[in-house]
Amino acid sequence: MSIADNLARIHDRITAAALTAGRDPAEIRLVAVSKTRPAADVLTAFQAGQTVFGENYIQELLPKLTEVTEPVEWHVIGHLQSNKVKYIAGEVSLIHSVDRLSLAEEIDRQWGRLDRVCDILIQVNISGEASKSGTTTEEALQLLHHCARLPHVRVTGLMTMPPFFDEPERARPCFAALRQLADIVTAEAIAGVSMNELSMGMSGDFEVAIQEGATLVRVGTAIFGER
Ligand SMILES: *Cc1c(COP(=O)(O)O)cnc(C)c1O
């Protein structure tokens, strides 16, 4: 299967999952996770209509920023070290993986130098699994209140990465819990914080995530093949 074929099949599956859940398929954006893949694969996907790409590692993203000259939108989806933020300031349109105040403050500082605002998601470790990054559910609200005071950061939603399960249904409670947390945040009505985006679901479980309210699904393997 080619990248274009894979993309077409994933779009069909996104549409079907959305309709099953009574949702408008247009509410869901596909983030093509291009980590470990060469810039040529990004170009191939772009030519097949894919515009949003997610990268985990800044050292891998930086060369792609120059190699890919097409107007793609880059998202950071992996653990981000504060000392790397300066390299991507103004270059990425969404950071999914903000899990601590010191990182949000550095994003605020670097985007502030450009007099711009960076959209971010708060990554929540919904399952509480020790190996996963993300705030605890309890810390999330406090972090959101702090982020709301940063002028060059705008929180637009939440992200989570459940533990790996063979069976996608087992991830459903994590996705449902993230959506419930977003509802709690919305009820708090924190000025400047919106819960428009729920980034959840990967190759193995994006349909379940869509049924639970995902607006951004992060899919790598099912588009580009095994890493
Ligand atoms: C690698 C990765 C993905 C994509 O995973 P696939 O199983 O290849 O679809 C999504 N989100 C994050 C945070 C990742 O690191």
Structural descriptors:
9 helices; single chain; binds pyridoxal-5'-phosphate; eight-stranded parallel beta sheet; 17% strand; 227 residues; alpha/beta; 41% helix
Task: Describe the SSE topology.
Layout: H1 3-20, E1 29-33, H2 39-47, E2 52-55, H3 58-67, E3 73-76, H4 85-88, E4 94-98, H5 101-113, E5 118-123, H6 137-147, E6 153-159, H7 172-188, E7 197-199, H8 206-211, E8 216-219, H9 221-224
Parallel strand pairs: 1-2, 1-8, 2-3, 3-4, 4-5, 5-6, 6-7
Bound molecules: pyridoxal-5'-phosphate.
Residues 33, 35, 56, 77-78, 161, 202-204, 218-222 line the site of pyridoxal-5'-phosphate.
Describe, in plain words, how this protein is organized in 3D.
The protein is globular. With 227 residues, it is of the alpha/beta class. It contains nine helices and eight strands. The longest helix is centred in the N-terminal third of the chain and has 18 residues, at 3-20. It has one domain (3-224): TIM Barrel. It has an eight-stranded parallel beta sheet with strand order 7-6-5-4-3-2-1-8. The protein has helices at 3-20, 39-47, 58-67, 85-88, 101-113, 137-147, 172-188, 206-211, 221-224; strands at residues 29-33, 52-55, 73-76, 94-98, 118-123, 153-159, 197-199, 216-219. Strand 1, helix 2 (39-47) and strand 2 (52-55) form a beta-alpha-beta unit. The protein binds pyridoxal-5'-phosphate. Pyridoxal-5'-phosphate binds at residues 33, 35, 56, 77-78, 161, 202-204, 218-222.
